[in-house]
Design goal:
By secondary structure, the protein is mainly alpha-helical. The chain folds into 2 domains: 30 residues, no CATH class; 58 residues, no CATH class. Helix 1 runs antiparallel to helix 2 and helix 3 packs across helix 4. The two termini are 19 Å apart.
Length: 90
C-alpha cells in the first residue's frame, strides 16, 4: 500500500500499477493481517507516536523477529522492542 500510494503521488497511477508487480518479484515475505497482529499494532500505537500504518509495520517486524529498515525517526523509540536499521532520514 505504501509503495503504491507513494508511486502514484510522485509518478502517477501507471507507475504505481507497474511498481507493485515489480515488488512481488523481490525476495520478500508477505505478512497477512490477523487479530493478534492487530492487537500488537494497537499496543504499539497506544504507547508510541506512530501512524497507524507504521504501528502495523512495527508489529509485523516484532512478530517475525525481523529488522525494521526505515528512514523515519518516529520508529526510534521502538529500538528496545525491535531491531532497527535506519536509512538517512527524510
Amino acid at each position: 500500500m505504501e509503495l503504491a500510494y507513494i508511486l502514484e503521488q510522485e509518478q502517477g497511477e501507471a507507475s504505481a500499477r507497474e511498481g507493485v508487480p515489480q515488488l512481488k518479484q523481490l525476495p520478500v515475505q508477505v505478512v497477512e493481517s490477523d487479530a493478534p497482529l492487530g492487537l500488537a499494532a494497537a499496543k504499539s500505537k497506544a504507547g508510541h507516536k506512530l501512524s497507524v500504518a507504521d504501528a502495523w509495520i512495527a508489529a509485523a517486524a516484532e512478530r517475525l523477529g525481523a529488522a525494521l529498515i526505515h528512514k523515519d525517526p518516529e520508529f526510534e523509540p521502538l529500538e528496545a522492542l525491535i531491531r532497527l536499521r535506519a536509512l538517512p532520514f527524510k
